[in-house]
Structures are given as structure tokens and as C-alpha cells.
């Protein structure tokens, strides 16, 4: 049923992926190793890489490394982007693998084969009228920078990132309007291995290093904004936050205060610096809480942060959490790199992530109230175990229900007055899960015939949600029903 839409005519409907989870070709055409190449597959991947004895080494006799193949987008990008076009994508968010451009990360000159590949991907998007949105760093720091420099706690990475961004903007800045700096930058508070390239052996357990790494990334982000604006003032650069709406478990003032402080620390700290251009008033409380002292912060750094804040906000949103600090007897729930107390009013996914579309509306309203900048929902979706039928179909009504409710929440936020730029559901084509390294945790509108053990044909098949999302885009969000789907 078609109804009036709240979505603006220029709303950017599309999908999102990351290089390390889809590309494959990890050792082709001069690409260097990235930290993602060392992540083993399976639910214990974080336990393995965050153990005291992990040293970034690869043990193929003991583990599988699914990121090495991804879904082989490196050789399928043309047909995959054609499928995106068939769905009606207005935009496609993807990341550039830094180590495909600078194999070690600290070279003098870029890898021409890597630049050529992304030039071809961008041109393929533009051929179909699909606006590229490029994430500059999405959990794929060059491995050499993690091993030899200790990751983002080392200030030298600011200069290496600056050179990388200069090359990317010079090469693609005339064709690409939207860039994101660091994917889910705030996630390092829980898992520094992904966003900051640090493990216990290189200091990830010391919050002094985490906050120093964040500061270095904040400065690097500001320099990316400057580089982009100096090249073309029409380029828009955004930050990217993992946003998880949180609620106090009850009206106990202790839980209310704990929830406020959790929101400041997790949802807002990194955004406050990148969007407002300065450290927030509660910084000293945070530093005291974690024993952080005497970070290396220069006057020039603070000047750059203030002068070059990001142009817009982008977020991932999958679930919400609840905060309870007065007792320890509550059940817990999982989540996107974080968990929390189980909310009795919410249902959960197969991976125990609590489903809360109203939380997305709350997130958008709060973010705009706080920052007054446009917001782009660049990740949202449902990981589930899809079943491929004998006639190569996937009936994923559960995914449609999830996405419909979250699109409705975005529509209501727009009606509230929030300027939402676009919506790119995560894993628009099935890919390797970042949290578990599994293929069986599927998000896409397109099924990829690939199993957790690496077997499969890599064939692509449209799911029922493919047809549904195609109609959503065609009607600009006016028709969210499944009535009469041709599947």
C-alpha cells in the first residue's frame, strides 16, 4: 500500500559493505596484509586476538581466515554492482583497503594497481548513477603499522594517514562527494584491536593508549577534512559512530546517572570531539575514571580539531541496551561489539541482539538535538541464518520485518525535523561477519553461496528482501508492504 512519504526526493537509498569483509584478493596486485587478515573465523575470534599471547601471526594449520576470500568481490564487483543497480540503489557505501593503496602503510608512493581497482569500482557505480560513499578506514589498518608502530597510539600514523588521504582525494575527489573517516571509531573503547590496531602485547589493555590513539585519530580526521575541502569544497566528510541507544533499567537515580554517563562515554565522546571540534566538559571525569594522564596533545592539534570538524554524522545502529548498576542478578544480552542488561520489553535476534526500532528514532532525535548536523544511517540490519531452497530462493520475511520497522523509525525522525541524508543497510550482499567471522550470519538482500568452512560456489541469488527493498526505493519509502511481491 502506497502512502505519503516523509523521505526527501534526494534521499540516498542504498547499501553498505567493507573491503575486508567482501573483497578477497588479499595477496593480489601488490596489496599488503591488513590486521583483518589475521582474524580467524568463528565465534571465538575476539577471544583469540585479544588474548595475551596473540602477536598478529597467522596459523593456517589451526584456524581458517575467511577475510582472505571474503565473497571475492575483487573478481565479482561488476556483477554485484549491477545487482545493486537492479535494486535501485542511489548510493553504495564501501571502504578502501588502506593496504591495497600503501601495502605497508608508510611507503613513499602508492600502489598503482590498488588505485586502478578502486577507480574501476567507482566508475562502475557511476555508470549506474550510484553515488559512492567511501569509508577511508574500516577495521583494516595495514598490518605493518600495527606490528612495527604499535597501531594508532603512535603519533606517526597521523602523517601516514594524511598521505593516504591526500592520494585518495587527489585520485577520486572529482568523482566522489562523500567520505567517512574512521568506521565506528568509538568501538575501540571495548575492542581496540579493530579500530586502533592494538592488542594486549602492544598496550590495548591500557586506557592511556586507547585515549591517545583516539586523539591521534581525531587529529587525522581533521586533516582529512582539510585535505578534502582544500581540493573541492563540495566534498562532504563525515565521522562514523557505533550508536547504541541506552536506557536506565528503572527510575532509580543511580541507574539514571549511570545511563547518562554511559551515553556520554560511549555514544558521544568521539562525536563531541569530531563534530564540535573540542573535547567535552566531562573529559576530565573520563580521564580520572580510567587513570589517563598527560596525553600528547599539542596546541596545534586543538587548533586543527576546532578548525576542521566533520560536515555530517554517520552512524551504525543495530540494537539498544539497558544500564543497571544497583544489583548483579539481571540477564545480559549481546550486541554489536557491546552488550548490556537485557531489556524485558524487547525481542532479540538469533545472535541475541535486542531489536529496538524506536531506539533508532530516539538516536536520531538525540543526535540532531545535540549537534544540528545532517545524519546518515550507514549501517543497520539483521544477521540471520538464511535457508536457500532447492529452487535457489530465500524467504526472509524476518529481515523485511526488521528493516521495515527501522525505516519507519527513520521516517518518523524525519517528521520530527531531523535531516536524515540516507539509509544504507549493512551487508547489502552477504559477507563475512566482523564480530564472528561467519558467513552463516547473513545480512544481505543477495545470498552468496559460501559456507563457514569455505565451501560453496560463490553464486549470487536474490532473496525475497531484494524485491521488497527494490520497491521501497522505487516508492521513496512510501510502500513498505510485502503485498504482491513478484518473487
Automatic annotation (TrEMBL):
Pfam families: Glyco_hydro_1
A Gene Ontology BP annotation from the UniProt entry: carbohydrate catabolic process
MF annotations from Gene Ontology: beta-glucosidase activity
The keyword Cytoplasm belongs to this UniProt entry's keyword annotation: no
A GO CC annotation given for this chain: cytosol
InterPro entries reported in the protein's UniProt record: GH, GH_1_N_CS, Glyco_hydro_1, Glyco_hydro_1_AS
Enzyme active site: 379 (nucleophile)
UniProt keyword annotations, A-Z: Glycosidase, Hydrolase
Family under the similarity heading: Belongs to the glycosyl hydrolase 1 family.
Protein name per UniProt: 6-phospho-beta-glucosidase
Native species: Companilactobacillus farciminis
Amino acid at each position: 500500500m502506497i502512502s505519503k512519504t516523509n523521505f526527501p526526493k534526494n534521499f540516498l537509498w542504498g547499501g553498505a559493505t567493507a573491503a575486508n569483509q567482501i573483497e578477497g584478493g588479499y595477496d593480489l596486485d601488490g596489496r599488503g596484509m591488513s590486521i583483518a587478515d589475521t582474524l580467524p573465523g568463528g565465534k571465538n575470534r575476539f577471544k583469540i586476538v585479544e588474548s595475551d599471547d596473540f602477536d598478529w601471526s597467522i596459523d593456517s594449520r589451526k584456524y581458517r581466515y575467511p577475510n582472505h576470500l571474503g565473497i571475492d568481490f575483487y573478481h565479482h564487483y561488476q556483477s554485484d554492482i549491477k545487482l545493486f543497480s537492479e535494486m535501485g540503489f542511489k548510493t553504495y557505501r564501501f571502504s578502501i583497503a588502506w593496504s591495497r593503496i600503501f601495502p605497508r602503510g608508510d611507503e613513499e608512493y602508492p600502489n598503482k594497481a590498488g588505485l586502478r581497482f578502486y577507480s574501476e569500482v567507482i566508475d562502475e557505480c557511476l555508470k549506474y548513477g550510484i553515488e559512492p560513499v567511501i569509508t577511508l578506514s574500516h577495521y583494516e589498518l595495514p598490518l605493518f603499522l600495527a606490528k612495527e608502530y604499535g597501531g594508532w597510539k603512535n603519533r606517526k600514523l597521523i602523517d601516514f594517514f594524511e598521505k593516504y588521504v591526500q592520494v585518495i582525494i587527489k585520485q577520486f575527489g572529482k568523482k566522489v562527494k562523500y567520505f567517512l573517516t574512521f568506521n565506528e571509531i568509538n568501538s575501540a573503547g571495548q575492542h581496540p584491536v579493530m579500530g586502533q590496531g592494538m592488542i594486549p602485547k602492544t598496550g590495548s589493555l591500557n586506557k592511556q593508549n586507547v585515549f591517545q590513539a583516539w586523539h591521534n585519530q581525531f587529529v587525522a580526521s581533521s586533516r582529512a577534512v582539510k585535505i578534502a575541502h582544500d581540493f573541492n569544497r563540495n566534498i562532504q566528510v563525515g565521522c562514523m559512530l557505533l550508536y547504541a541507544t541506552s536506557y536506565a533499567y528503572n527510575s532509580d537515580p543511580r541507574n539514571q546517572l549511570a545511563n547518562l554517563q554511559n551515553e556520554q562515554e560511549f555514544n558521544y565522546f568521539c562525536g563531541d570531539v569530531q563534530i564540535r571540534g573540542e573535547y567535552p566538559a566531562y573529559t576530565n571525569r573520563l580521564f580520572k575514571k580510567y587513570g589517563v594522564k598527560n596525553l600528547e596533545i599539542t596546541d596545534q592539534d586543538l587548533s586543527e580539531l576546532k578548525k576542521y570538524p566533520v560536515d555530517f554524522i554517520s552512524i551504525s545502529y543495530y540494537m539498544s541496551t539497558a544500564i543497571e548498576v544497583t544489583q548483579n542478578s539481571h540477564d545480559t544480552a549481546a550486541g554489536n561489539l557491546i552488550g548490556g542488561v537485557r531489556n524485558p520489553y524487547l525481542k532479540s535476534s538469533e545472535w541475541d541482539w535486542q531489536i529496538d526500532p524506536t531506539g533508532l528514532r530516539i538516536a536520531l532525535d538525540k543526535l540532531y538535538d545535540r549537534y544540528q548536523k545532517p545524519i546518515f544511517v550507514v549501517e543497520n540490519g539483521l544477521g540471520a541464518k538464511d535457508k536457500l531452497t532447492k529452487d535457489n530462493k530465500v524467504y526472509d520475511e524476518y529481515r523485511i520485518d526488521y528493516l521495515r520497522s527501522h525505516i519507519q523509525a527513520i521516517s518518523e525522525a524525519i517528521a520530527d525535523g531531523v535531516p536524515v541524508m540516507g539509509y544504507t543497510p549493512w551487508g547489502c550482499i552477504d559477507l563475512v561477519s566482523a564480530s564472528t567471522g561467519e558467513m552463516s550470519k547473513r545480512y544481505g538482500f543477495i545470498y552468496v553461496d559460501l559456507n563457514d568452512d569455505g565451501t560453496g560456489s560463490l553464486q549470487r541469488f536474490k532473496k525475497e528482501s531484494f524485491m521488497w527493498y527494490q520497491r521501497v526505493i522505487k516508492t521513496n519509502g512510501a510502500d513498505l508492504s510485502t503485498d504482491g511481491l513478484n518473487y
